[in-house]
Amino acid sequence: MKTRALIVAASALAGLMIAGGAHAALAVGAKAPDFETRGALAGKVFKLKLSQQLKKGPVVLYFFPAAFTPGCTAEAKEFADMSDEFRKHGATVIGMSADPVDKLAQFSTEACRSKFAVASAGPGVVAGYDVALKSENPAFAGKTTRTSYVISKTGNIVYAHSAMDYRDHVKNTLAAVKQLEGK
Q1: pTM value?
Q2: Quick one: which of 48, 116, 54 has its CA closest to 86?
Q3: Which helix (H) or strand (E) holds 81?
Q4: Of 78, 79, 110, 177, which sits 20 to 30 A from 91 (CA to CA)?
Q5: Average pLDDT per run of 10 along the chain, which is 183 residues long?
Q6: Which position among 72, 96, 118, 176 bears the catalytic label?
Q7: Domains, the chain
Q8: Half-sphere exposure for 53 (CA within 13 Å, toward CB)
Q9: Could you give the CA distance from residue 149 to residue 141 in angstroms, rounded to a whole number?
Q10: Residue 111, exposed/middle/buried by CB under 10 A (0-12, 13-18, 19+)?
Q11: Torsions phi, psi of 181, nearest 5?
């Protein structure tokens, strides 16, 4: 019964986003807001600061509604499958949701297969990136939209995409990362 309720909620969320026409809140060229939060990689919790991550190279910052839902799990697995390719092109992948960090620690090992960090997006991060899921349904309160950003090493947004369907996020963010090489 609990599984059926989860599937119904995920389907309703997908329908809401498709009907609502999601859009990337931060435009290409905008400065990405810096933040510090708690993240998890391979089940281990740590402090994550965007500006520190950008010192290594571009960052793919992707927001997802909720850990362990069907679409979010599929998207995380796809990012995990392509993580070596992102690294090859100098990029760091970071998944973000409003879930508590203890839930994300488990998600980092199970869905993300310990390949990339996931972090908890508090209200300041959600507002800064304008990724709050807008719905009158209380079941979706506190959730984020599915929005992917590629942020250059200088901290500027070079690619932004919002869509509830996760399937183009990985392919498109990887293409944007590849275009950054040599610039």
Answers
A1: 0.85
A2: 116
A3: helix 70-81
A4: 110
A5: 38 34 73 97 98 97 96 96 97 97 97 98 94 82 92 96 90 94 68
A6: 72
A7: 2-180 (3.40.30.10)
A8: 30
A9: 22
A10: buried
A11: -60, 135
